[in-house]
From TrEMBL:
Domain Polymerase/histidinol phosphatase N-terminal: 3-67
Name under which the protein is recorded: Phosphatase
An example molecular function term from Gene Ontology annotations: 5'-3' RNA exonuclease activity
Annotated InterPro entries: PHP_dom, PHP_domain, Pol/His_phosphatase_N, Pol/histidinol_Pase-like
Pfam families (alphabetical): PHP (PF02811)
SUPFAM superfamilies the record matches: PHP domain-like
Amino acid sequence: MRIDLHSHSSVSDGTDSPADVIGYAVAAGLDVLALTDHDTTAGHASAAAVLPRGFTLVPGMELSCAYEGASVHLLGYLFDPRDRELEAELVRIREDRVLRAQTMVDLLQAEGVAVTWERVKEIAGDVGGDDVVGRPHIARAIVEAGAAADVSDAFDRWIGSGRPGYVTRYALDPVHAVQLVRAAGGVCVLAHPARGEGASTGAVPHDLVRRMAGAGLGGIEADHPAHDDAERDRWRGHAADLGLVVTGSSDDHGELTGHRLGCRTTDPDAYAALIAPATGALPIVGD
């Protein structure tokens, strides 16, 4: 069984529709895929509608968190999407994301970069009515405007932390985020912990991970394309010390990451242990 627990669609900052993501997952030889768009569940229904027989979709999302000025990413799975407290926070995050993106466009225009809010919205699309606009959409507009060679260059020059077009955002405290997902019946994994961004870039502090574990964190995404061998082994060790499951995932964003679904996978026993405590939702199996 081949399992990938981290992927994105055009509902957030991927390039492919949720249905197309399922098609790519099947072509990559996967048996289980978690769709984890940023701060939204809007793509789950359309992904579930095209599941081939026997293929499993794990409903999830990637929650925006921050700690001491640095981004921390939390993967939540199998929570109740109707949970009022969790949904209220998601609405606040998404509304702030739009305001942040608009402010970033204004700053870029002041710097002479010919991007417009209308074009950013066109790139982002309007899937499910959530208006989840992210920096990758702005980056693509910057590239179109000729102000960067590619998306990575756009981040480095213009919209990465500390750059002229960067704006901070509303994000959850990571420990509180774990508590929210667990209260909604879900389970949590710390995403790509060796890669942070913000005032204190780099790895997520181990003390914070320990506190997240105490709040109910279930696993650590040690096997990630951005982690080198030393980082992977270090985070596997941290997971063992804390009694957490180790997961492996592609963090695929479609064309932006080279359609890499299945380049990292999760052991079936680890997957079973991770989802066992979930009570908010069930994996969806195609029939």
